[in-house]
Amino acid sequence: MAKPTVILVGADKGGVGKTTVARTLLDYFGAHQTSTRAFDTEWPRGTLKRFHPDLTEVVDVTSVPDQMKIFDTLGSAEAKVTVIDVRAGLLSATLQALTDIGFLESAKKGQITFAVFHILGSSIASLDEIAETARVVGDANYFLVKNFINNTTFFEWDPAVYNSYFKKIKGAEEIIIPKLNEMAFEQVEVASVPFVSFVGNKNAKSETANYSFVLRGYVRHWLGNVWGEFDRVKLVDMVSPKIESNVRQAAG
Amino acid sequence: MSFRSSITIVASPRPRVGKTLLARLLTDFHLHEGRLVTAFDLNMGDRTLAQFLPDKTRAASIRDVNGQMALFDHLVAYEDITKVIDVGHEAYEAFFSLAHNIGFVDEARRRSIAVAILFIVAPDHTSVTAYRSLRERFTHATLAPVHNEMLGPAQHRDKYPLATGGPGLVRMAVLAPGLRRYVETPPFSFADPRIADSPLIPATAYAELERWLRRIYLEFRELDLRILLADLQSSIQLSSNSQS
Lengths: 252, 244
Fold this sequence. Notes:
The complex is a heterodimer of chains A (252) and B (244).
Chain A: E1 5-10, H1 18-31, E2 36-40, H2 47-51, E3 56-58, H3 64-71, E4 81-85, H4 91-100, H5 103-108, E5 113-120, H6 125-137, E6 141-147, H7 159-166, E7 173-177, H8 182-191, H9 195-199, H10 213-232, H11 235-239, H12 243-251
Parallel strand pairs in A: 1-4, 1-5, 2-3, 2-4, 5-6, 6-7
Helix pairs in contact in A: 4-6, 8-10
Chain B: E1 5-11, H1 19-32, E2 37-41, H2 48-52, E3 57-59, H3 65-75, E4 82-86, H4 92-101, H5 104-110, E5 113-120, H6 125-137, E6 142-148, E7 170-172, H7 177-183, H8 203-243
Parallel strand pairs in B: 1-4, 1-5, 2-3, 2-4, 5-6, 6-7
C-alpha cells in the first residue's frame, strides 16, 4: 500500500481564497487519477463540501472524535491523498494539535507524506505566521501560495521583508495562483460545481449544462495555469514517488 | 466528422490592407452560394462592414466579458449559419489571444464547425511575425495567406509559408480603378441581384465587375474545397487510427 499523503491548506486570515486553492487541488488529483478525500473544517457548514460533496466531510478539527476520523483512518482509507481545508485562524492551532498527537513525528520519520499549502494574505501580519508555522512544520513540504485569483492589487509589501521570511523555511516553494476573470469565477460559484465540471459544461448531477463557452474558456485557461504551477513543484511526484517506474512498466 | 458550417476570420495587424473589402466579398460569396450567413464587424471605429451589409452584419466588441460572450458564444452556437468575422487591426491581438486562451478553434471543431483564417499578407515585420504566431497557435484552423493585388506584387510571399496540404495563396485581384466608385458607396452588396439592372452601373462596367467577382469567387471555392479536404483527411486519419 502506498504511503498516505496529507495536505493542509490554510491561512491565519479569512478571505484569502484557501478554499479555492483546495478546490484546484482536488481537481488536480482527480485529473491524475489519484483518489482523494477532503475535510472541510468550516464546521458546521463547509464551502468546500458545496463544490465537492462526494469527496468532502465537514469536521470540527479541534474536537478529538473528528481528529480521530481524519488521522486514525489515514492508513485504512481508500483515498491516497487527504486534503484538509483549515478554517481561517486555525492553521497554527491545527499544526500544534498535529504535533501533540505525534503526527508530525510520523511525517518526519517518512511514514506519511505531509505538505502545507500556506495561503498568503496581502498584509504584513500574515507574514508573521510564516515564521510561526515554519517552527512547527519543520521540513515538511511547505508551499507559500500567493493567491491573485480575485485581487488586482496584492503584495504591496517590501520584497526584502518577504524574502527574509521566505528563507526561514528550508525548501519552501512559492506557488502563484493567477487572477481569474471575475464573471467566470462568479459563474462557477453560482453553479457550485468543481472547476473541471464547469470546464466540461456539466452540472452537479453530471448532466450537460449551458454555461457560457467564453467563461468556460477562461476557467480552463486559468486552471491550466494553476495546474502548471502544481506540475512545476512536482506535486504528483510528491504524492506518488513511484509513478515514474509505473509509467516505465506501462511503456515497456 | 463532417463540418456543418464554417467561420472565416479576416485579419491583419495592419490598417488599410483591404480586410473589410475581403470580408464583404466573402459574405456576399456565401450569400451568392445560397447559404445563410452572418458577418461580425469588430472594427472599433466606423463599422464599415456594417454600413455596407447592414442586414447581414452585427457590430461586435471584445473589450469586456459581456461583449466576448455575445460574440464567441454566438459563434459556436449549434446552428447552420456560415459566419464571417472582420477583425479590425486594433482588435487583432486581443481577438487572437482570447480565441487561443479559451480554446475557440477546438470548441468549434467539437461542434463540427470549421475555422479558417484569411490573413492579408504585407511585407512589414509585424505582419510576418503575426502570421507565424497564428500558425503556431492555431494548428487546427485552416490558415490561408491572402494577396491583395491592389497592394502591389507579392514579392514577399516567401515570408508566408503555406501549410502542407493546406490552402495555397488566395489572390484578391485588382478591381479596375474606374469600377471602384460603383462599389464603394454603402450600403452595397455584390450578391444583390438588382445591381445587374441598376441604372447607376453601365452594362460594360457591370460585365467587368462580374468578371472580377468570378475570379475571386473561384479562389473562395478553391478554399472551401481545401477546408473540406482537410476535414476528410483528418477523418480518414481518425478512422485508420481507430482501426489499427
